[in-house]
Fold this protein.
Amino acid sequence: MKTLKTVCTAVLMSFFLPLYSSAQSTIQGEIKDTKGKALSFVSVFLQNTTEGTLTDAAGKFLLKTNQKGHQVLVISYTGYEKLLTPIILQDTLYNLTLKMSQISVMEEVTITAGTISANDRAVAVLKPLDIVTTAGGQGDIIGAIQTLPGVQRNGGDQTGLMVRGGDVNESLIIIDGTIAQNAFGSNVPGVSQRSRFNPFQFKGTAFSSGGYSVRYGQALSAILDLQTNDLPDKSTINIGANFAGVYFSGSKLMKDNAIEFTGSYNNLTPYFSIANTNVDFYDVPQGGGFSTRFVSKTENNGLFKINFSHSYNKTGIEIPDPATAGAHIRFGIENENTFMNTSYTYWANARLKYFAAVGYSNNTDNIAWGTIPAYRNDNRLQGRGEIWYQFGKKFNLLGGIEVQRYNYIQKYDTLTGQFSELQPAAYVEGEYKPASWFALKPGVRAEYSQLLGKGNVVPRLSFAFRTGKHGQISLASGMFYQTAATQYLLMGYKPGFQQSVHYMANYQWMKKNRTFRVEGYYKSYDQLVRENNVAYNPNQYRFNYGQVDNSGSGYAQGVDFFWRDKQSIKNFDYWISYSYVDTKRIYQNYASKVTPDYVSPHNLSIVAKYFIERMQTMFSATYSYASGRPYYNPNSPVFLADKAPDFHNISLTASYLATIKDVFCVFYLSLDNITDNHNILGYRYSGDGASKYPVLPPIYRSIFVGVNISLTEFNKDELL
């Protein structure tokens, strides 16, 4: 559970034990401009890998690599034309002398409207170590993403990613080009669930709060696009223990191939023995899982990946009985989840790239609502194929197709609902840069729903232009469609596509590890699914939907601010994120157009990190604020007009690095809500409206301790 685990659980995954080394190639050389002047701090890296270096003050560089065969050496420097140099690596020494041509006094423009990316050097914001060393993020990708602008703060009772007025059904998480259908632990009433993935699985994190690429569809609000790691640098092994359980991980590097594996067992009994929760667990959360991964570097710069994971978890809580005032019932759940995806990237040459991916997931929940059994199962199979080609230096084109097949079945006592869906799609997107200060990216996507017997074609457009050497303005707009939420399709309803249209503009300034962003947006909603001729019922597990159609509508508008500074103070990093959203909608069984009950109009996050070298200790602190969310009061004459109190949270983490007889150890401590603020997230009422119950986070204040043991030396520069 997200609120009961800490950031330090995932920090451990970064410290490993070397077991194996292989022969290396050494590439050295010098880089100059056309006048013979040495260029320092030039980026030199192997295309389609994470291996790279920088030139020194004399323009010289040295790069050692385990890569083999045909490679492309990329030379990149602000204001100069990028060089792509083919090279064949065969465990030897290479000497290169290269010259770069200047193109402009300004940096090349990068389209950033709606997108914050960690795999694009131009707009890097959060990396894996950023995620796991952020206090209050609990080592969870989504926990860290919630400190970014545009994202709704989760108080602990909701599961999912809520962006710019959108609910949890309007966002998708993508891994290597395929959808992670069950990206979070299965829903437990009133208790938020963590995402299923370790941040150190990924080399790239691209979060789009709107206006995203035509590569993806079926998300009205946002996309989190994750790219898994390439070949590891070395063979590794790692073990750790904490109040939540034990785990083990490792990898074996075999020249151009690698196998990685993890295993874990979690049981919160030790933690609950010292913690006071606001949730009555009659069955303490416990479970375990394993994963394995194979990566292979093929000839001509090809990269093949396959990921497999399987997990089992169970828990049981007592919750208020929605049918009887003051009574409680037991809710127990056992979840089994399997996820697999495979991808292949092939560079035919420096201008032509092929990409293919296949993903499969299967999720099963066995649930007990008091004495009533329930069962849920869903599975998804998805395939994607793409071709990317660069025409000269100014224009590139991406084209692709994808097909998804997914099935859902749900049983509750004697009631059964099920459906199957087939969704093919095709898309094409170009990027044109007629000058280094201007870029244009138009695209179009076509998709079809076999279940609905309908299709759509949607255009999307974004462009950007430089305002100076370090600043730029980006704009984006597009149409987005999504089928109805699964609860309607399971009951046999077939409403049409829901629609949103995004308009956004931002200004971004970046210089010397400082980043400033401000973005304004407007989002209109049409054809939202609405339940007619039924009274409002806040129970999300209700079955009475009345007459369902697409008569719902709404809007969301607001502004986001982001500032990050890693430059001013040595070993100190901080960022400030603020979001304001004004949104109203009428959908589901809402009685009128109002601000939804999951939206906080104001969200603020202040994150600070400091590494003290002489103490070998990393400290992190986060302050989170969210204004009160609306809640339903049946005694109020105005629908959803009551507001919960504002949310405040201060979290601290500390990690101490030590070497004990050649064994490298990390001891960590996490404190969440150190002021013990008793946040109230809203209120529930009995059926007759006479009794009122507060909605509370699963725990007010938590303390979490753990240790990790490794023989790999730690580089503190990775933290900052």
